[in-house]
Design goal:
By secondary structure, this protein is of the alpha+beta class. It has 2 domains: 30 residues; 113 residues, Immunoglobulin-like (Sandwich). It has 1 helix and 11 strands, in the order H-E-E-E-E-E-E-E-E-E-E-E. Strands 1, 2, 3, 4, 6 and 9 form a 6-stranded mixed beta sheet that branches. The chain has a 5-stranded mixed beta sheet with strand order 5-11-10-7-8, with no helix packed on it. Strand 3 and strand 4 form a beta hairpin. It is elongated. It starts with a helix and ends with a strand. Bound molecules: dinuclear copper ion. InterPro entries: Ba3_CcO_II_C, CcO_II-like_C, Copper_CuA, Cupredoxin, NosZ/Cyto_c_oxidase_sub2. It is found in: Cell envelope. Subunits I and II form the functional core of the enzyme complex. Electrons originating in cytochrome c are transferred via heme a and Cu(A) to the binuclear center formed by heme a3 and Cu(B). GO terms for molecular function: copper ion binding; cytochrome-c oxidase activity.
């Protein structure tokens, strides 16, 4: 079979790219152990208020973990608990969140934190707050008539 040399080069490039892509994916998944974030832990959405750590929403200092603080949020139509929190500048924080009713969003405006909170699942994100100021948390999943009013605030202070 005759093949034009450009066609051949293009085929080699295509198959080569595919192999590179699959190798990167394979190494990342099986050697480095990367998994899709969140939704690995589950919770009974009817018992959120009595299940730790969601029975005490807010910021808590922790010892002996890879992060300094745990910041627990409970979302429900149409608010977050806590409504406002202060975090010391430079703190490494694990955000742990869930919802009591419907699907809500959890986006920290101006950062790359953007989680979906689903009933029955726990969403987590570890981050370091290395800029002082106020961060607005907004719901970006349409959840009902009060959706646009649903927000919370993080203050990063020295
Ligand atoms: Cu909660 Cu939109």
């Amino acid at each position: 079979m005759h093949m034009h040399k450009f066609e051949k080069a293009w085929l080699i490039f295509g198959i080569g790219s595919l192999l590179v892509f699959l190798t990167v994916l394979g190494v990342s998944a099986f050697y480095l152990g990367n998994q899709p974030p969140s939704c690995l832990a589950t919770i009974d959405p009817e018992k959120v208020d009595t299940t730790a750590p969601f029975n005490e929403p807010g910021l808590k200092k922790v010892e002996g973990k890879d992060w300094d603080y745990e910041l627990v949020y409970v979302a429900s139509a149409f608010s977050y608990s806590p409504a406002e929190v202060e975090i010391p500048y430079g703190a490494k924080v694990k955000i742990i969140a869930t919802t009591k009713d419907v699907v809500h969003g959890f986006e920290v405006a101006g950062s790359n934190i953007n989680m979906m909170l689903e009933p029955g699942y726990i969403s987590e994100h570890v981050t370091t707050f290395d800029k002082t100021g106020e961060y607005l948390i907004v719901c970006n999943e349409y959840c009902g008539v009060g959706h646009h009013m649903m927000s919370s605030k993080i203050k990063v202070v020295e």
